[in-house]
Specification:
CATH topology of one domain: Cytochrome Bc1 Complex, Chain D, domain 2
Pfam family, one: Cytochrome_CBB3
Number of strands: 0
Distance between the termini: 66 Å
CATH class of one domain: Mainly Alpha
Largest sheet: none
Protein name: Cytochrome c, mono-and diheme variants
Order of helices and strands: HHHHH
InterPro entries: Cyt_c-like_dom (IPR009056), Cyt_c-like_dom_sf (IPR036909), Cytochrome_c_Oxidase_Subunit (IPR050597)
CATH superfamily of one domain: Cytochrome c-like domain
Keywords: Heme, Iron, Metal-binding, Signal
Radius of gyration: 22 Å
GO molecular function: electron transfer activity; heme binding; metal ion binding
CATH architecture of one domain: Orthogonal Bundle
Helix content: 55-70%
């Protein structure tokens, strides 16, 4: 014979169900319209790049006539990229470690990597 759940048990189950729905909605919100979480990270990196990096590195990852490198041709080395962004380089690129958090730098890497020349 099945017993009817107590009000306390029902309330706990309802709360768990509500949290599960909220968590699923949060995960979907982090994805882009196609449901691709990597694309959402690339899009975030593109936005960060436009506001923080493009004035020196150019709107298309290159700025001819300057000392900045063509970012489409940077090595496939995330550790080196993160270190350079955080600490700056050769007293020419300023450090961004106090301005950009790890998530923003990771998104920048995702964006720039997605545009790398083969």
């Amino acid at each position: 014979m099945l017993r009817k759940p107590s009000h306390k048990t029902a309330a706990v189950l309802a709360a768990v169900a509500g949290l599960t729905v909220a968590l699923a909605a949060t995960v979907r919100a982090a994805d882009d319209a196609t449901g691709n979480p990597m694309q959402a990270q690339i899009d975030h990196g593109k936005s960060t790049y436009a506001s923080k990096c493009s004035h020196c590195h150019g709107p298309n990852l290159m700025n001819s006539g300057t000392i900045t490198p063509d970012l489409r041709a940077i090595p496939d080395d995330k550790t080196r990229f993160v270190t350079t962004v955080k600490n700056g380089k050769n007293n020419k690129m300023p450090p961004w470690g106090d301005i950009l958090n790890d998530e923003e730098i990771g998104s920048l890497w995702a964006f720039i990597s997605s545009r790398r020349k083969p």
